[in-house]
Design brief:
The protein is an alpha/beta fold. It folds into 2 domains: 167 residues, Serine Threonine Protein Phosphatase 5, Tetratricopeptide repeat, CATH 1.25.40; 265 residues, no CATH class. It has 17 helices and 17 strands. The strands form 6 sheets. It has a 4-stranded parallel beta sheet with strand order 2-1-6-10. Strands 12-11-13-14 form a 4-stranded parallel beta sheet. A 3-stranded mixed beta sheet has the order 3-7-8. Helix 12 runs antiparallel to helix 13 and helix 13 runs antiparallel to helix 14.
Length: 560
């Protein structure tokens, strides 16, 4: 969006705003300490960050860009050179089962064993009661937990119509398929000698796990993710943004786009997304939850996006279809659709590629139809990811099926909560980092969830947030919810003068226009809408803004 930044002070000179509306007075800050301590206590679950020693990096040796991404990642994460390997693969996103086996699965298995990254020994296993035990080779020791597939490595294993397996006729019709995501199939590499069926799904025994260290090849799982996207540059950017978020934290707003379904076979999709919204709410995130049947409208000013979960549209739509999207560093974005990752290397088709191209740091998608029961449990994912799991750990805790259709895109080592919240809060304060406003907002939201009196929350904002557009907008929302129209307008006006982000600025102008109009301040309301036309001419809702301006032309003005 092409917007000129400007000082909005002139909007209020000579008007009622800032002249006749008193600010809320500040009081003793004693309750504020209690609020902050509660926030830090609830967010106290963290896990230690892991080094590149726990990763094997795989690239397509047929593509120079693939090797470039692999080397870039290895340097950024200090992956030992002996744990970076290239295999000659097709330069397509889809790969046959035979090529997957011959070009990726078997070479990788051999590499891991030769490099002693996997130590494999035999053991006797009784598969069926009453039958004699069989000898299987399994991973008894492993130096790695993650595999990173780089831009250029195929993402989808095509259906093999010639594959014949016993018992297929007993499976539900939708599961009689042997196609799969490369990631999901490779996750079972430690179980390779068990000859697991390729048709249908393999139940993920780590689904909903709360023990991140249990995700280990010695327990039968290799956490596989990919650095991918519409270009090698996008793939490399996923690493940079993850590392930046680890340094300063993952901050911003959380948007959840539901369909408002109360019954029917598709209600499960809403339930999975609502679980994500609830997990974020309990942890103090600033939420926007939409229950309308349609996806987010194009004109919705989505500012400072840290988390997104939505569903239904086949191709990127709404605000995400714009060329500029306000993703924060480290942002996770997930759109639930059967073919969201049918192609990853296109910036305008489906969802995974466009979300990455527009700035998301991590996402999860589906290379083929998974059916709702085989999709991501967003509540499980966010409850882990926002409490100390790595991206890889959270992704595999939230999948109930493996050898299926899920692809995990992003740095699996990415851990946005890799230190205590008090340590991060104090670091941002010491650095005078503007992101501290989001930590304060977390204090506010968490204590609202915990039922603290609104007066104490307002007091906290007035002590901590008078220089923050984020906190001043929140103050306006709280006051508006209490029916205090003019104090709310005053707070929104303050936020507008504190250099909000472009999308937040549009939202504030729209809010002020609406509230001033309802209060009879037609001239001031018209001024707000005109500022959008002047400073954001490419805003998708500009036609509606012009209609609002036109509708006010004949309305009488109210004197101060």
């Amino acid at each position: 969006m092409n917007m000129r930044k400007r000082n909005t002070t002139e909007c209020w000179s000579g008007g009622v705003l800032g002249k006749n509306i008193p600010l809320i007075l500040k009081h003793s800050i004693t309750p504020l300490i209690t609020l902050l301590l509660l926030f830090l206590l609830v967010h106290s679950t963290v896990s230690a960050a892991e080094s590149g020693n726990s990763v094997v990096v795989i690239y397509n040796s047929s593509m120079p860009e693939s090797k470039e991404v692999a080397e870039y990642y290895a340097k950024k994460r200090n992956v030992p050179p002996g744990q970076v390997v290239g295999f000659d693969m097709p330069m397509t996103e889809a790969i046959s089962r035979a090529d997957f086996r011959g070009d990726i699965q078997r070479p990788l298995s051999k590499f891991l064993e030769n490099k002693k990254l996997f130590t494999i020994r035999s053991e006797f296993v009784s598969v069926t009661p009453g039958e004699p035990s069989k000898v299987y080779w399994r991973v008894k020791e492993s130096k790695i937990r993650y595999a990173v597939l780089c831009y250029g490595v195929p993402s989808r294993i095509m259906e093999d119509s010639g594959l014949r397996e016993a018992g297929v006729d007993k499976l539900p019709e939708p599961l009689r398929r042997n196609s799969a995501a490369v990631d999901s199939e490779l996750a079972l590499l430690p179980m390779n000698d068990y000859k697991l069926p390729l048709t249908g799904v393999i139940q993920n025994s780590f689904f909903n796990s709360t023990e991140p260290q249990s995700f280990h090849p010695t327990n039968g799982i290799l956490m596989v993710a990919r650095l991918d996207g519409p270009s090698a540059a996008v793939a490399k950017g996923l690493v940079d943004k993850a590392i930046e978020a680890e340094r300063v934290g993952l901050w911003g707003r959380a948007y959840f786009d539901l369909r408002g379904l109360k019954e029917g076979e598709f209600k499960l999709g809403d339930d999975l997304l609502r679980g994500g919204a609830e997990a974020a709410r309990k942890l103090g995130w600033e939420l926007v939850v939409d229950e309308n049947e349609q996806t987010f409208p194009t004109a919705l000013p989505m500012s400072q996006i840290a988390l997104y979960g939505g569903w239904y549209d086949a191709d990127v739509s709404g605000p995400f279809a714009q060329s500029s999207v306000e993703f924060m560093p480290g942002a996770f974005a997930y759109h639930l659709h059967s073919y969201s990752a049918a192609t990853i290397r296109n910036a305008n088709m489906h969802w995974v590629g466009p979300l990455l191209a527009r700035g998301a740091t991590a996402t999860i998608g589906f290379v083929d139809e998974p059916y709702l029961g085989g999709t991501l449990d967003l509540g499980v994912f966010l409850s882990r990811f926002l409490r100390g799991f790595s991206f890889g750990e959270a992704a595999y805790a939230a999948q109930n099926s493996l050898s299926w259709q899920t692809t995990v895109i992003g740095d699996p080592l990415y851990r946005p909560v890799d230190r205590g919240p008090q340590q991060l809060h104090e670091r941002l304060l010491a650095e005078k980092n503007k992101l501290i406003e989001w930590s304060h907002l977390g204090v506010v939201n968490l204590n609202i969830v915990q039922g603290y009196p609104a007066e104490e929350v307002i007091e906290y904002i007035n002590e901590m947030g008078t220089n923050s557009p984020v906190l001043m907008e929140k103050l306006g929302d709280i006051l508006a919810g209490q029916g205090k129209t003019w104090p709310a307008i005053n707070a929104y006006a303050q936020a507008l003068n504190l250099k909000p982000s472009p999308q937040q600025e549009i939202r504030l102008l729209l809010t002020l226009g609406e509230k001033l109009s309802a209060a009879g301040r037609i001239q001031e309301a018209r001024d707000m809408y005109r500022l959008i036309v002047k400073n954001a001419p490419n805003y998708p809702g500009i036609a509606e803004v012009n209609r609002q301006i036109a509708s006010m032309s004949d309305r009488p003005l109210t004197s101060p």
